[in-house]
Every structure is written in structure tokens, then in C-alpha cells.
Amino acid sequence: MRNIAVAPRTRRRILAEAAALVAGAAAPALVGERPAQAEYPDRPVKFVVANTPGGPSDIIARIVTAALDQSTGKTFIVENRGGAGGNIGMEYVARSNPDGYTILLATNAFSVNYGLYNQLPYDPYKDFVGVSELATTPNAFVVRAESSAKNVKDVVALARANPEK
Q1: CA-CA distance, 65 to 138, in Å (whole number)?
Q2: What CA–CA distance (Å, rounded) separates 94 from 82?
Q3: Least buried of 7, 121, 136, 155, by fewest C-beta within 10 Å?
Q4: Secondary element (H or E) of residue 129
Q5: In this structure, are residues 106 and 7 in contact, taking their beta carbons and an 8 Å threshold?
């Protein structure tokens, strides 16, 4: 099993996945079958947030783990490992045992860092596999009101005209 990167997802998708989880968990009981191996998870599952506590990704992780705790009766914990633009937490998950008990809650840094850093302590393409989108966030590109740039095309033209700035 590979390490898991968890990306943001919508509320509709969360509800659909929760329903699938409940249906999958209930199916063996309904047909009278018992699992051949230990039920996953049979020990606490760690959600690693590659940011410091209190930010949006930490809050999402705590909401998700609380819901998983409640719906499964199992233990899901949040561990914050912020620093180096998220690379510390991402490296920690990449180097962890790929058994599904250490899950990365990734932010856009997961996809952006590959282009920002010359070397990463992990390979985002080989060390992780996406599982689900948990949330989305809007982004805005803004300039000061008195700037001559009024759109992205203007900003690019201004940057090309003034490369030293």
C-alpha cells in the first residue's frame, strides 16, 4: 500500500463517501459474513497536516477526524508537522510505513512545491496517491488600487517592462 495524500473535497462528496463507508461496513453484517482479517483500522490513524495548528487545513483535518471517530468508533488523530512550506510534514508521511495509518492532508503546497524547490525530500508522483478532495478554497490575485495594472495581462506587461523590480 502506498502513502496517501488527502486533497480537499466538497460537502456533497463527503456525504457520498460517508454513505459508502457506512454501506461497506454494514454489508458483512447484513449477509452474515465475518471479515477474514482485522478490521481497519485496528489502531489509531494519524492525519498529518503539513502546517501549523489553527489554520484552514488543521481545522478541516479536525472536522474530518471527529466525524470519522464518531461514525466508526475508531481513533483518528491530527498531527501538525509544519515548516519548510509543508515539506517537513510531507516528507514525514512519505517516509512513514505505507500501511494506511499515516495519511497526509495536503494543501495546494503539495502540487506547488514541486515547481518551487530544486530538490524535495519526497517524490509527489511516486510517494503518494490521491484519495479524496476534502475542501476547496478561493484564491484572489490583487494589486494596490493606485497601481496601473487593472488585470493579469497588465501585471505581466508591467513585470516584463520592469524585470529588475
Answers
A1: 23
A2: 15
A3: 136
A4: strand 128-133
A5: yes
Q: What is the dihedral of CA 45, 49, 54, 60, to 10 degrees?
A: -70
Give me the domains of the chain, ranges plus CATH numbers. 3-135 (3.40.190.150)
Peptide bond into 35 cis (omega under 30): no
Q: Is 7 helix (H, G, I), strand (E, B) or coil?
A: strand
* CA atoms of 144 and 113, how far apart (whole Å): 27
pTM > 0.85: no
User: What is d(CA 140, CA 154) in angstroms, rounded to the nearest whole number?
Assistant: 16
pLDDT digits (tens, 9 = 90+) for 123-149: 999 999 999 988 888 888 899 999 999
Could you tell me which of 104, 97, 109, 103 has the C-alpha nearest to residue 137?
A: 109
